[in-house]
TrEMBL record:
Organism: Pontimonas salivibrio
Official protein name in the record: tRNA (guanine-N(1)-)-methyltransferase
Gene that specifies this protein: trmD
Subcellular location: Cytoplasm
Enzyme Commission code: 2.1.1.228
Single GO cellular component term: cytosol
Entry keyword annotation includes Methyltransferase: yes
Length: 229
């Protein structure tokens, strides 16, 4: 069964890049199907409005629940996972991407403005798997870019999508820390040499060097990932 993904957004054009490269190939090979839906198609007023002022006051607008309910109802099944990108959500990570990759059906609800009326999450939570997910501790203008990031991270983990599944074994966040640095030809570039050990052909030494480099990089860039931290 291919992984089915439905994305609901007011900016369908944001998702054109999903036709390119690995994401495009994953769809062409039938491993994944992705459909993009315009939230405004599920409005009932002349202006196709999707937002209103917040109860309790405050700046900005909030997305109204009616079009969201209509749009989600049009695609939901009891197998669906509803993903609501929000900076207030749990942090999206490689283990979460792996879980999503093994799902049956993902629905992404791309918020804008100050976000989506919380009753949408409250309504679907007792009915299906609902996840409020953040891609990092910063605030984007909308959920579209966050959705693209989550789709790409998850789809590349769908079995069969990567030509060489070995690429997944030694990469950052699959290891205890982040990946070692990589080099390719030429052996010298602008006076900088590729580390000699990588040219040596000694697989044990190369593995040891890479493990050391991974620890050095993790200690420097992501000490929070070190075991016991
Ligand atoms: N008022 C919201 C808050 O402070 O939590 C921020 C709303 S933000 C301007 C608009 C939309 O962008 C959100 O509803 C969400 O869909 C998306 N968004 C912004 N930052 C995000 C992040 N770090 N991760 C996932 N989605 C994000």
């Amino acid at each position: 069964m291919p992984l089915r993904i439905d994305v609901i957004t007011i900016f369908p054009d944001y998702f054109a890049p999903l036709q390119l490269s690995l994401m495009g190939k994953a769809q062409q090979s039938g491993l994944v199907t992705i459909a993009i839906h315009d939230l405004r198609e599920f409005t009932s007023d002349r202006h196709r409005s999707v937002d209103d002022t917040p109860y309790g006051g405050g700046a900005g607008m909030v997305m109204t629940p009616e079009p969201w309910g209509q749009a989600i109802d049009a695609v939901v099944t009891d197998q669906s996972t509803l993903i609501v990108p929000t900076p207030a959500g749990k942090l999206f990570s490689q283990p979460v991407a792996a879980e999503l990759a093994h799902s049956t059906h993902l629905i992404f609800a791309c918020g804008r403005y100050e976000g989506i009326d919380q009753r949408v999450v409250e309504y679907y939570r007792p009915r299906i798997d609902v996840r409020e997910l953040s891609i990092g501790d910063y605030v984007l203008a909308g959920g579209d870019v966050a959705t693209l990031a989550m789709i790409e991270a998850s789809v590349r983990l769908v079995p069969g999508v990567l030509g060489n599944p070995e690429s997944l074994v030694e990469e950052s966040h699959q290891l205890p820390g982040v990946e070692y640095p990589s080099y390719t030809k030429p052996p010298t570039w602008r006076g900088l040499d590729v580390p000699e050990v990588l040219l040596s052909g000694h697989h044990d030494q190369i593995a040891r060097w890479r493990a050391e480099q991974s620890t050095i990089r993790t200690t420097h860039n992501r000490p929070d990932l070190l075991p016991g931290s």
